[in-house]
Amino acid sequence: MSCFCLRPKRTISQEKIFEEHKKKDTQEYRKRLGLKDDDDLQFLLAGTNLIKIRSKSWQKNRYFSLMEDCRTISYSSKKLFKKDQTFLIDDIESVRKGRQTEGLKKYTDPTQDEMCFSIMFKGHNKNLDFMADSKEEADQWVTSLQKLIKHIDNLSKKQTREHWLINCLQKADKNKDNKLTLKELKHFLRQANIEMDDTYAEEIFKKCDTSNSGTLEDLEIEEFYNQLTKREEVDVIYAKYAETQGEMSATDLLNFLLNEQREQATVESALKLIEKYELDEAAKQKKHMTKDGFTMYLTHEDGSVFNPAHSLVYQDMSQPLNHYFISSSHNTYLMEDQLKGPSSTEGYVKALMKSCRCVELDCWDGPNGEPVIYHGYTLTSKVLFKDVIRAIKDYAFKTSQYPVILSLENHCTVEQQRLMAHHLIDILGSALVTKPLGDTMPTNLPSPEELKGKFLVKGKRLNKLDAVFSDNSTADEEVVSEEDEAADCKENDQKVKSKKSKIKLAKELSDIVIYCKSVHFSGFEHSKDNQSFYEMSSLKESKAFQLAETSATAFIHHNMDKLTRIYPAGSRTDSSNYNPVPMWNVGCQIVALNFQTHAKEMHLNQGRFRPNGFCGYILKPEFQRSPSSQFNPQSLTNGPWLQKKTLHVMVISAQQLPKLNKDKEKSIVDPLVIVEIQGVAEDNAKKMTHHIENNGFNPMWNEKFEFPINVPELALLQFTVEDHDSASYNDHIGQFCLPLTSVQNGYRQVPLLTKRGVIIPSAGLFVHIMLLDRQ
């Protein structure tokens, strides 16, 4: 492990030695990043002046540069005695070139577009907007930052954990002499989220202090690190299978993969793992895997609970659109609550970057003849319709190439509707579907594969789709029912509903609604007899849940050839969400959620859409697509959906759980783990471990749970780690959710995500999982 460095008063010779250590440490880290002599890294280290922009009047010149640790950007003003400000590269979500944020569009001139860029942060942190001196300098900042972020993301788990520990050690080294006293050791343990008995702390300190100097330094600190990161549970597993000179041969590893991981492995696949994860060249030459290599395997994608084969698109994408669950957002423009929060193009960017494939646009007449988007009859702010369409065009296909549905809630006058149609056609161009695919009237919806890179408009239409292939023309505008429009606003405002039950619809806007024509839902029998395949209904959650309870089989059959959209009740003014699982159980495709609310419902949504390359489309099970199916999630009978299994889960341990109260030095988490199944009613279950006092670093539970499973194809497995609090609600530490069909058997690492769905780099759970047939 690299020495951790920094700075008290020293003699000239000590200073020279210190600088050499520091230089060596920095060079080693850059080498790991693959950027040792990289020009882009040198540019960031040198830094430049940038104009930081907050408003029309607040545009300040600041000097920005990358610090020697290669993970922190610092910036300073010219004011004396003012401390430099910093932010971490790890906290950056993305770097955007040009005037893409609302702030830059508002406070800079269009001619300055090529000199502008923005840094977007994870979580609640506000973005930073900049203007460089030239286009070339702006390009260099964007390119260099994106490269550094990518290289840091590619660091191995071992390197990430090591860097995290080094940071804790640096903070503990109060006098910056590159040594640890016993007092500093105890401070480090608190930084690392470990509550350790003083006697044991002294014992480990003495064991590592081989020089008897009363401090730990260099190799002694490395030994302390090794003692601390020792994984007894991994040692036991490794010892069981390492039968070749104390190491795992390819045959030993194969035995482990077959017996414990239940993989269809071969000697060749075992050799590939050795080549991929073994760090020791001598062992690799012998085709052996050491304990360090084995630990690397367990903590990377091949050892993950999530099947790495499912991280790519692996499902059949040539089925009709209605055969897929589609990741969908409600009131996408809102950043906070439904009554007074801000509306922003950023809501669309964030949703699309999470592979959301159906976004909502509530359209109203705006000033100067330009339509705007906001939550009608509320105090939410407004954003221009054309700005939203531009943002959607820019970000729609960055994470997924599959089609995006634009769900229009139209309250505009005919004149502004015509301008909406113009903006859609002008901005989206050939990517907008304006007529059916092919030369003849289709009989079912096209597939995601056929619609790659395309936009579909969902909204009202004046006539039937086959009119496209006939000479029958329609009037320039006609009155249509508005029953499907802005249902949220109206369910809380009956006066508005009675006044606005009809709207005039412009032909120009009607003509670009092709495969997603909005119609009122009048019952399953009525839909069966009267609704065409391209016509779809939107149901508020209360109506949808009632139908799922009373007419589940009919609901499933309705969704076999038609799309259905579900949206949250208007009473959810805090932007909370309903549980999406019962809606997926009855085959609803567009289960719209408030993406800005980071709670359990969005974790389930993230889990549902995690497989299939996180592309936003998941193929529904066969029994939700076959017309002969009699599947009813409320009352299970024999059928292809019934696959009786038992899920065995052993929660073994956790590693490096984040410290929640960073401001409180002596605050250590008391973690517990909740394991939960969400699926059909008979499968739903929740189990919980005991909590462990004062250990967020390497808590160990070794608790076993069993879950009877009946319909595995609809089941989601969710892990949640909480900080136990006997006096109030437990605090959330991390979570991970995935479909049961994507779970790998055996000893597996469970990555942990924040509430917002961002990976916690150093943290994880270690579990043993086995899904077995049940008689």
From TrEMBL:
Residues 160-195, 196-231 form the EF-hand domain. SMART domains: C2, EFh, PH, PLCXc, PLCYc. Glycans are attached at S211. Its main location: cytoplasm. Its EC number is 3.1.4.11. This is Phosphoinositide phospholipase C. Residues 509-625 form the PI-PLC Y-box domain. Residues 42-150 form the PH domain. Keywords: Calcium, Cytoplasm, Glycoprotein, Hydrolase, Lipid degradation, Lipid metabolism, Membrane, Metal-binding, Repeat, Transducer.
